[in-house]
């Protein structure tokens, strides 16, 4: 059975066969659309915003792929979770993992990367990174560093198989510390250079949609 599911062993676990890859993608897509299916109706502009963010961040990750463990998605997930909420932040994380890995390389680890970035987005929604419309830079910097280690631990779970023991896994984590530090440094750099700009960009789109919604409601009430 295993030979039909897995074709090879990748950096972060087994590479799926085409059939299993299709099943994985369907599961991830269903999860993303379920997260986006909130009770309140979303406008076309709101949906286009999320699609634009997914495509832009996915392209950035692909372009930066040669750099060791520099993950622009992590800080983006934090800020999008803070600005757009946990559900849309998690959906963003899942879709970015799927789209970027379709180019970089897909496998068992895609599921764990999606879970890792979704967890970061949920964390961003809970840490009060945005207060009264203002980005709390010091909180973002701390969250950016911490989220690197949280994400990397979650993704490291993809390597576990029946041959792994606790000692083996801890040794594997220890060997990955230099890459974790690079991820944390990259996150901090993104947060310092682009954090405020990215948060403001998302917030401006939110404000535009709120103005449109308010105007429409006012017209309906007057008519």
3D architecture notes:
Helices cover 76% and strands 6% of the residues. It is mainly alpha-helical. It has one domain: Arp2/3 complex 21 kDa subunit ARPC3. The strands form 2 sheets. Strands 1-2 form a two-stranded antiparallel sheet. The protein has a two-stranded antiparallel sheet with strand order 3-4.
Indicate the CATH topology. Answer: Arp2/3 complex 21 kDa subunit ARPC3
Largest sheet: 2 strands, antiparallel
List the helices and strands in order.
HEEHHHHHEEHHH
Side-by-side strand order of the widest sheet: 1-2
| CATH-scheme architecture | Orthogonal Bundle
Mean pLDDT: 82
Distance between the termini: 65 Å
Q: So what's the overall shape?
A: globular
Overall tally of structural domains: 1
Name some characteristics of this structure:
223 residues; Arp2/3 complex 21 kDa subunit ARPC3; two-stranded antiparallel sheet; two-stranded antiparallel ribbon; 9 helices; 4 strands; 76% helix; disordered N terminus
């Amino acid at each position: 059975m295993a030979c039909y599911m897995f074709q090879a062993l990748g950096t972060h676990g087994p590479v799926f066969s085409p059939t299993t890859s299709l099943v994985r993608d369907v599961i991830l897509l269903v999860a993303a659309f379920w997260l986006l299916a909130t009770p309140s109706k979303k406008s076309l502009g709101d949906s286009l915003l999320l699609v634009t963010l997914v495509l832009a961040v996915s392209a950035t990750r692909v372009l930066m792929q040669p750099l060791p463990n520099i993950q622009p998605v992590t800080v983006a997930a934090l800020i999008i979770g803070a600005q757009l909420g946990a559900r849309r932040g998690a959906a963003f994380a899942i879709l970015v993992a799927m789209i970027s890995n379709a180019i970089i390389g897909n496998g068992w680890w895609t599921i764990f990367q999606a879970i890792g970035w979704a967890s970061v987005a949920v964390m961003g929604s809970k840490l009060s990174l945005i207060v009264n419309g203002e980005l709390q830079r010091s909180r973002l910097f701390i969250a950016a560093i911490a989220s690197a280690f949280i994400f990397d631990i979650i993704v490291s779970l993809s390597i576990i198989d029946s041959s792994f023991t606790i000692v083996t896994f801890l040794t594997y984590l220890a060997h990955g510390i230099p890459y974790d530090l690079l991820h944390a440094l990259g996150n901090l750099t993104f947060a310092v250079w682009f954090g405020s700009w990215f948060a403001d960009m998302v917030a401006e789109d939110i404000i535009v949609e709120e103005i449109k919604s308010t105007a429409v409601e006012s017209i309906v009430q007057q008519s």
